[in-house]
Each structure stands twice: as C-alpha cells, then as structure tokens.
Amino acid sequence: MSDVSSAPSRVFVARLVGLPIFDPQGDQVGKVRDVVVTIRGEAAQPRVLGLVAEVFGRRRIFVPMTRVTMIDSGQVYTTGLLNLRRFEQRSTETLVIGQMLDRQVTLPATGVSGTVYDVAMEQARNRDWVLSRVAVQEPPKGLRRRGQTHVVEWRDVQGLAQRSPTQGATHLLQALNEMRPADAAHMIHDLPRERRLQVVAGLDDERLAEVLEELPEDDQVEIVKHLEAERAADVLEEMSPEDAADLINELPPDTATSLLGLMQPEDAEDVRRLMSYAENTAGAMMTPEPVVLGPDATVADALAHVRNPDLTPALASAVYVCRPPLETPSGRFLGVAHIQRLLREPPSSLVAGAIDTTMESLKPSASLDDVAIHLATYNLVAAPVVDEAGHLVGAVTVDDLIDHMLPDNWRDRAVHRD
To answer: What structural domains does the chain harbor?
Structure first.
C-alpha cells in the first residue's frame, strides 16, 4: 500500500484504470479512467496534475492529486471533497492512457525503437507526483510473438514530448476492449478528435457498433462520416436495428440512402421499417428482434432461447408466441410467455400453455406516454407491439422507453470544468 503522505512509491498508470475511488468513510465515489499530466520537455519529468474519475451517471470529473490521500494495488482514497463538474481537457494537458500509450519512441543510449505500453508515476521530494519511468516494447523479431520490453527513466526516452507524435493504438485498444461498451464510449468521447478517429479505425466492426450505440449523436455522426462507406454499412448491420435507424435518421439523406443500399437486404429492411414510424412512438423505439416462437415449441425451447447472452435482460424476460412466419412482422400474434411463468412449468410442456392472453398489446402508433403507462400499469420491462392485422412487429423495452424520454444528447449533458 502506498500512502501519498509517506515515502515515495511507484505506480504504473495502466494498472490504475478501473480501480475504485473511495472517500474517507470507505464509500466508493467513482473509478479511475485516466491520469492527467503536463509535459515540460524531453528531460523534465512531467508533473501529474490529477486523475480523470468516472462518477455516478458516467460523468467524468477531475480529481487533483492534492485530493488523493492513498493509492494501493486495488483502490484509491481521496479527501472526499470532489468537484463534480465535468472534466474538459486543456491544451496544456496530456492524458496518459488516451494520448501517451502506443507512442513511437526511441532510446538514444541504445538505439532501440518501440512503442510505449505503460508509464509509471511516483512522488518526488517536493511531494508533487511526476512521471518517472516509461515501459517500452520493441517490435517482434523473427518468430517472437512479442518484442523485448524495457523499463527506463523518463529522461532516457525521446519522442514523448512531441506535439504531433507518431502513435499507434494497440495498447489503448486493448484497454478499451476490456471495458464495458458504455465505459469505452466515454473514454473515446474524451479523446482529442484525431486520436478518437485513429482508435475507431482500430476497433473491429462488432465492438465499434457496441460503442457507437453508447455515444452521443454528434459523435456517432462524426465517426460514421469518416468511415469508408462499405465499413460504415458493415458497422450499421452490427448495431441493433433501432439504434441503427436512429443514427441513419441523423445523417444527410444522400448518405443515409447510400448506406442503406450497401447493407444486407434483411438488415436494411428492418431499419427502413423502423424509420417509417413516427418519431417517439412504440414503432420507432421498438426492437424488431424479440424472442419469437411458435405454439408447438416447448418450455425447454423457450428457456434455451432466453439464455442467449446477447439478449438484454429486458428482452430475455419474455417469449412472444406467434403463428408462422416467426420473423417480424410475424403471423398472428397469440400471446406472451413471461419467464417467471416458464420457470414454473414442466420443461416438456408446450409454451402455448404458458402464454398470457389477458394483457393488451401496444400499437405501433402508441406515444411515449402510452408506452410508459402500459409498462407501469402491468409492471412490465417489455411489451409486444402488434399491428392492426394482429401481426407482431416488435417489442418495446423499458430501456428503450427511458432512452427516448431522456433529453437529447443526455450522455453528454454534464457541465464543464472551470
């Protein structure tokens, strides 16, 4: 354990990311997301200004090092007096995780070149925290899968003080891929624009789709506009249809038409159908891919389908029983089988025997208020959306509802730091 008021200790920054931050009473107030430093040249050790912390509501705030009382291998303690204004990076500041990892550097004493994969900080004699060591990895040689690593003094590295550094994204991508999509989205949102686009280029299509779904609309549009058209279409196919429809609606009409033409026909059809409904209605916010089974399916079949880890908890709460075809818009909708009821039934019994036929369905034209009242009245987290002809066209979930009831760009509404 390292007490910032005692002897100097060394902490590697990449190992800090994700650690919980506690107040003096032992209550968790946030998580570490990055370290903010100011670079003073190649030879002078950069001064550590503070931490970027994620607090309640995924807001990112600045925690000065003067507020940090203790750091150990598993947690960070603060004075508890934190300014909750949103962190906004200044031009003189550098983010260690976001901007320093993967920089191309050289070690003049040995002629070695490589990339930065971690940086250590420690407390100097004047009690300021500084960056003291740099972990550098050489490119792989021969049959080696990983290059040789070196941990050297800050002054022995050349290339970290450059304003326009040569930089990859390997180690930052590794960190992002270990985060939840929402956490990765917040880190990407806080990166400088050029660095953000560089990182986006390194994400695979599925991961980028997950991250895009969690980003503010402005960021979504900027990223999609900078992707090659073929890749943008591939990423949209990986997104949930309702999120893809919301994003395409924000694009210029010519771009939207072009991307829909490049998508797989079945994916584009789902998106076009969602876009055909009026904004802020059940049809516009629903997912067209709930769990749909025929009446001859067994309870065991239903439980196997809702175990799919790709389903959200809300979508996994119920099975929608319909006549064929079982893709939306389905054949005649018969009713909903809730998972709690399914768990009480013999696995070999038919799912048709467990459906709830007493509850009314939502119409695609139902308003936000209609949906909210319906879910609240029946204590539901998801409900079927059925058209005038009795066909299931989708399901609306409580998370869909909340997402549409919150203000525009709610993910980025926190105030700025002074």
So the answer is: 2-95 (2.30.30.240), 170-276 (1.25.60.10), 292-404 (3.10.580.10)
